[in-house]
Amino acid sequence: MALATVGILSFGGLPHLQGTADAAVKAQRCDEMFKLRGNPTDPSKLPWANGDAIRPEADWDSYEYPNQRKAMDGLTLPDDPAERDKILDKLDKPYKQYKEGTPERVYATYKDYLTRNGGTDAKYGGFKNWLNEAYIEVYGRNPRGNAFHGKVVKDLGLIGPDWICEETVKVTDPETGKTYERRFDAFNRKTKEAVEIKSGGNHDGEQAPKDRAFLKDPTYKDYKLRYAFGQTQSGDTARYTNGLKQLAGPGRVTTYEHTSTPEAEFKPGKYTAQDTLKSIGRSSDVIRQSPPTPADMKRQMDRIRLNDPTGMRVRGPGGVDFSTLELRYVGAPVKGQGLNYSFTAKKVDESDGLGYGGQEKAELISDSFFTWLALTPDKFWVNLNPDQPDKIMDKSFGKTDAGRVLLQADLEMKHDYAKDMDPRTGIGKEFWAKLQAENIPCTHGVRNWIVPKPAVVREQDGGVYILDAPLKVNSVPQDFKTPSPNGECNLTEAQHKRVQELLDTMIVPAIEAKVNTTAKYADLRRVYNARVAAEWIRLQDAKTPTDYHAIINSNKVTDWPLRGQNKSWTPEQTYKEYLKSFTQGDYSYPCQKDGRNATCVMGGVDFSKAPKQNISKARFTSEHKHLPRTTDISVKAMTDDAENKGLLALGGNTAVHKGDGGGQTPTPTPSRTGTPTSPPSTPPAGHTPNPGHSGQGGGGTTAPPSDQSGGGGLANTGTQIAGIAGAALALLAAGAGLVRWRRRRTTGAG
Q: How far apart, in Å, are the Cα atoms of 93 and each of 105, 108, 399, 472?
């Protein structure tokens, strides 16, 4: 019964019952391996039958796989070596003797890794990186690959007597005479197809010479090689598969993207990273693992490539451009059940090196969201006016990053306005030419300020989707008392009106376009999206008190202060920078008025109102039919946006699970006895894996490396037969429900 249970549950994400290396490579009918029934799909109906293919967006989905180690992803260890050693020195037993799922097991494994590397961690640069990259991620690779393998077999109908999984064939490269053994995830001698399945978008570099030999071997000259990926191919992999296509000739090599998002199943606990009632974004693995600088990003990607020779990883922080991160969804704020939320960001190739800064951007969004909740809306403005040094912004608002972003954006807008008024180039040249043609000698003072346009949203299923949140630049004539380097400009009423008309039609639209699209205003757009979300939460709380009731209108913002490099910023600093520009004329340009015809401006940003337009259900369904499913998946794991292939969606939930304490550094206590939640014989996450599987696809097992290898690589992730059999017995006794824990952080979240 235990063996049968494991076999049945394996399709839901549990590893196959395969213990030794010999057992792992044993070929088997795919339907028998994954306990499937039915008729095989007609070969002419398979997605690759007519060449390269991508799964239709309507079919994009997710699948689950077990990785209980993710419950430890909030565990911390002091950076200071002395403090770190105080904790590690208490662990005097081999790491395997500590119970899986305890801090002792994690720390002892890390201690073992340090010991084998001379007591230093030059490779990972600290416990946090080691924990995420070595201890947790590697442990889930085989279960994830196995789950995706079974999913592809089931979804595509690779069943029946002709489809064999884990089939090994001998291939010979006729040019070198070298012979290889190539194991494919699915193989069909009748249709002459070999299928390699990857849950991510990467290929296995070690398989490259074998694939080339397979395509050149006369024995298999009529066979076709099919690659099935769970994510978009990386740049390196696309170049690799294109090379195979050129080698093999037309039609013999095809790629298929069976887009599906892996969701780790685990029971969260005391040391699980989580959001709080005063923050969002912490529960996102990808955000937490995003390094702070480009240099750190390069080191991270170098480590990942070095430690992933078989291409088993799925897309991580390296595939996200965090400079584009924005809040796009918040769910129903049900008291006691947390809040679902979802961000979007542009998808990039890992080789672009843009996956840094995620924590900083998410923190800005989170802090802004709570700032908008805590302060009353009458405080949501900033103002740079040379005549009003005492009215820069509200005092409380000036102590937050949201306020800083608004004031800096106002100053940036003034710089952009002046640049566009330059009579030597572009729009400014056209503008001044029109003035000259109409005998208008100069321009009046102008007040420009940024306000929200109505945000396009859809309130549905208890949440709000922020579909668009544009910003508007307003402009009006303004007199001021502070002397300007431009001198006086005496115009008739008609000339004043004409100048403003030209400004409104030529200059202001260009500035507004910059505010809504360019990178330098990205933080402003981020905080506005957070403003829209917060306003919606305010409205829900007014109907029924939520977990945020005590925060709303409290005017207490000490929990969301200025952070990082901006923690010492003051509004006066920006005001002084602006006043210098205004009075000393650094916006001036050589033109017809004594060589100085600048336009100095004053204005601000006013977010006191957050207008919105709630589109109809019919329009939402028509234009965004895939968005609810994408958002739901994103709460549990980063996923591709089915509506915009250039975007990713990633999020989390703010529910505080039982045993709150994620991110704690505990003082280890003696290990308790009990049934481990994962196989206890896993080697330390500090050894180099010995790949025993053909890639990210099926349920192969790796042979455990020697504890004396000293290579400092990653852990073996193979499933050992004793461990999985024990787990099967435990599951049989406790019920299958124990393995159905989802990624979501709140009980009862459907």
A: 10, 8, 49, 64
> Does the predicted TM-score (pTM) go above 0.70?
yes
pLDDT in tens, 609-628: 888 899 999 999 999 999 99
Q: Which of 554, 197, 206 is nearest to 372 (CA)?
A: 554
The helix-helix angle for 401-420 and 522-543 (nearest 10°) equals 140
Contact 215, 225 (CB under 8 A): yes
d(CA 564, CA 469): 27
Q: Which two tokens stand for residue 407?
A: 């004031």
> How many Å from the N-terminal Cα to the C-terminal Cα in the chain?
30
Chain-centroid distance, C-alpha 81:
31
pLDDT of residue 230: 97
Q: How many helical (H) and strand (E) elements, i.e. helices and strands, does the chain have?
A: 21, 20
394: DSSP letter = -
- Tell me, what's the pLDDT at 201? 95
User: Distances in Å between the alpha carbon of 352 and those of 237, 292, 335?
Assistant: 14, 15, 42
Token representation of residue 565: 């490099």
Which burial class, exposed, middle or buried, applies to 56 when counting CB atoms under 10 A from its CB (0-12, 13-18, 19+)? exposed
Tens digit of each residue's pLDDT (9 = 90 or more) over 96-111: 999 999 999 999 999 9
> Residue 337 has what pLDDT?
84
250 SS3 class:
coil
For 110, the token pair is 């890390």
CA 469 to chain centre: 21
Residue 608 has which token pair?
């006191």
The overall longest dimension of the chain from CA atoms, in Å, is 94
The torsion of the CA quartet 653, 555, 396, 534, rounded to 10 degrees, works out to: 40
Q: Are residues 146 and 16 in contact, defined by beta-carbon separation less than 8 angstroms?
A: yes
706: left (phi over 0), alpha (psi -120 to 50) or beta: beta
Look up residue 11 and give its DSSP letter. G
Cβ neighbours of residue 598 closer than 8 Å, sequence gap 6 or more: 418, 421, 485, 486, 585, 587, 588, 589
Tell me the C-alpha distance between 67 and 264, whole Å: 6
Length of the chain equals: 750
| Pair 340, 651: CB distance under 8 Å | yes
Alpha-carbon separation of residue 727 from 145, 285, 400, 447, 654 (angstroms): 19, 26, 50, 70, 31
**Spans of the chain, pLDDT less than 70:** 1-25, 479-487, 584-603, 657-750
- Tracing tokens 């709150």 back to the chain, one arrives at 660
Residue 583: what pLDDT?
Answer: 72
In order, the DSSP letters of 149-176 are HHHHHHHHT--STTEEEEEEEEEE-TTT
Which residues on neighbouring strands pair with residue 465, listed in sequence order? 329, 458
DSSP 279: B
DSSP-derived secondary structure letter, 678 = S
Sign of the Cα torsion 151, 63, 361, 529 reads: positive
Q: What is the DSSP letter of 717?
A: -
